[in-house]
Amino acid sequence: MKYVFTEATEEAQNAADAIVELEYQDLLPVIERKDFKDTSEFRPRSFARLQLRARNAVKELINNPYTKILILCGSSRVNTIEIAHELVAELSGQEPTIAYAPTRFEFFGNDKVDGVLTSKGYVIMPCSHLLDHPKWLNMSDACIAQNESLKLILCGDATECASLQMIWPSLDNVLRSDIVMEFPIAGGVELMASLVASYVKKYKLHNFSQEAIELLCIWSSRQSGDRRWLGIPEIRLCTLVIAANRYANGNTVDNLAVLKAIAAEDYRINYFAELELRNHRDNQILLATEGEEVGQINGLSVIETAGTSYEYGEPVRITATLRAGGEGDVIDIERKAELAGQIHAKAMMIINGFLANEFGAEQPLPVSASLVFEQSYSEIDGDSASLTGLCAVISALSDLPIRQDLAVTGAVDQFGDVQPVGGVNEKIEGFFKICRLHGLTGTQGVIIPASCVDQLVLRGSVISAVKEGKFHIYVVSHVTGAAKLLLKTPWGDSSVENSICAKICTRLDEIGNGKNPRPWWKFF
């Protein structure tokens, strides 16, 4: 890391408006190196064996005679039923029954034939099936109460488990456990190698090399959104491992095969991301990556495609304009047009709060501002553009131009402190692609919250550009730091000549006193 536009003193570096530029070393993965040839050196360990919480819950279900129901809350990205099956079979020594979608007769049985709830042993069932048949629940209570040999495990995601508990009061006091998908990066290579070794054994695949395992760790770290953790969406990881095996050139799957599998998956579902790039190339979307402009700034957003759930970064042009009079507030055009959600509306109110606290504490502001996301035709939500919008309004108030070669993301509070946001990797990569499309100038980059540094798990092309000095990543902790970098002017206060604050205060005084430096006839 290196400090920008500040002295090298410790006091200056700890200042709220300090600006830090990340160097390429700061972007490298924090994976511990472990020398080995391939996964044959590791004992296979399935995803179910990593679930210590679920394992503890299954033990409790087995050993406690008064506990009959266990709810395993997972995600659509893991096979919760398979996890439950493996844990029950291992810990109880019995083969559980899996009832995916039993009919009413199969569920309750009769005097001659046992049903799911009248049989003995362990039964695993998805919550979704009971949600589809709510009329079964009252009779289910009676069957479960009478069957002392039954142990029922209900599996589902958070929404399904919560919905079932709302309509089935008997679940209020049952045993529960979560399926964990995130694991510490410390020891992550061994964990990933053991997990991949279990897939190698189960599906009869080639062994994976050390470099391939390390690349899978980087991929998993990106899934978690934090480079200090491995995020393992088991179903997707298993699919990726099997695909990489097909690209293997020899008896070992190397990192090139894994890269090909990741690239192939990305290619299949990134059509809309490529379409956005085409629109930028054809100048259908107006976004500048060079020059300066008053009241115009590049924001960063994340788009998730319907159906494929593919996330990609989409830069957006945000503009702010002023008008004399009004209540001194920021008019959110997106909200007025009913194209913004409640969190976005809250973020705009926070911008109002900061401006009122900074410049209108003693008397009302004599101007109002309008803020809009240009060329945005669908609903938006979230507070990650509040720093961006605030900087655009500050530019309009001070009449200082904003650098168009920088894009900004971050949330702010009423005191101007910059808060973390999500999707930082996708946002940075989205703006980098647009800059590369327009031509890298060596000054382009992004501004992100300092608290988001640990989220960074960027693609190699971005890291290489940072290393070569063609692209820059700046982190800030306060809006004053972002404004100082964007406007190329110190923040200062009203007494510091040519500072941002002084220019804003001077302009507010002129407008409030009717001394507009640009008379209306000058506009014609």
TrEMBL record:
Domain of life: Bacteria
InterPro entries: Lon_proteolytic, Lon_Prtase, Ribosomal_Su5_D2-typ_SF, Ribsml_uS5_D2-typ_fold_subgr
Entry EC number(s): 3.4.21.53
Catalyzed chemical reaction(s): Hydrolysis of proteins in presence of ATP
GO terms for MF: ATP binding; ATP-dependent peptidase activity; serine-type endopeptidase activity
Pfam families: Lon_C
Active site: S384, K427
GO BP term, pick one: proteolysis
Keywords: Hydrolase, Protease, Serine protease
Domain Lon proteolytic: residue ranges: 291-489
Family membership: Belongs to the peptidase S16 family.
Name of the protein in question: endopeptidase La
